[in-house]
Design brief:
Elements lengths: L6 E4 L7 H12 L6 E5 L1 H5 L5 E3 L6 H4 L4 E5 L16 H16 L6 E3 L4 H6 L7 H8 L12 E6 L2 E5 L9 H4 L2 H18 L6 E5 L14 H15 L3 E6 L7 H4 L4 E4 L2 H11 L5 E5 L5 E4 L16 H20 L1
Parallel strand pairs: 1-2, 1-5, 2-4, 3-4, 5-12, 7-10, 8-9, 8-10
Antiparallel strand pairs: 6-7, 6-11, 11-12
Length: about 325
Amino acid sequence: MTPARPLALSLGDPAGVGPEIIAKAWRALNRGSGAFFVAGDADVLEAQGVPVRRLGAPAEAAGAFASALPVLHAPCATPPRPGVSEPANASAITGWIETAVGLALGGEASAVVTAPIAKAPLYAAGFRFPGHTEFIADLTANVSQEGQRGPVMMLAARDLRVCLVTIHVPLAEVPELVTEERVVRTATVAYEALRRDFGVAQPRLALAGLNPHAGESGALGLEEAEVLGPAVAKLRGVGINITDPLPADTLFHDEARRTYDAAICLYHDQGLIPVKTLDFWGGVNATLGLPIIRTSPDHGVGYAIAGQGVARPDSLIAAIRLASEMAERRTDAR
């Protein structure tokens, strides 16, 4: 079973691998029962050698999907050159994201899947957000929802899900940013999302320690006792099943992964290294705690290989499938 409404894909940076992997994903999935459409430049997608259907409305996507890639056409400001950063196209790139998010908020799309963007050309054009996650959170900030609000970044690969307390910050700043409040919020959002969007009736969370050996009873750091311990107590007080802080170097092997449904990690590489080691090509980035569903491939724009026909669509296909599954669960829960 798949959601009746189509998924909305934003094209991402048209000079990167986004157009190529979207075309490859359509070729891989167009004989299935789930449809998606792209908010982006139809000419850019036609250049990938796939048939394109320009839509008047998202509802037309399902009827077109088997024979052509459905596109809500909004052109680039300047023709993209593979691998070349183009600040002139920044407004088109952000506009495609806004269109996809708006359609999901309005009920015309069941979820949003975002192809990769490059930060530098957007910043050069005045973009004021660190990335996709924060931008989408801002676009949905005034929409009411049940439960704790995100955004919380989850990375998923095979049987591993990790949620990050801090994301794109220097390692030197992590200890100060790992606060009791942030840990409680991240774990609460993860717990609620596992129940609502992943079908886990009684989620089990594992908490990674910040220091080697989870602080070794204070000999290797005090954050576990002074910050993480109180956060665990507060979470357990509201019925959330979460471990004490555990040494991160023993948290991700096969046997350990069977003991929890998601790991709460404290900084970027603590979570991303195990995900990418387990499944380098197929990892998915999901944003939790928002009124819409949003997933993304777990890789960047790939300027170095753009236009060469060698980009792998595995992660985008996994992101599409995960978004569809999450949307189905939200629909069934209504």
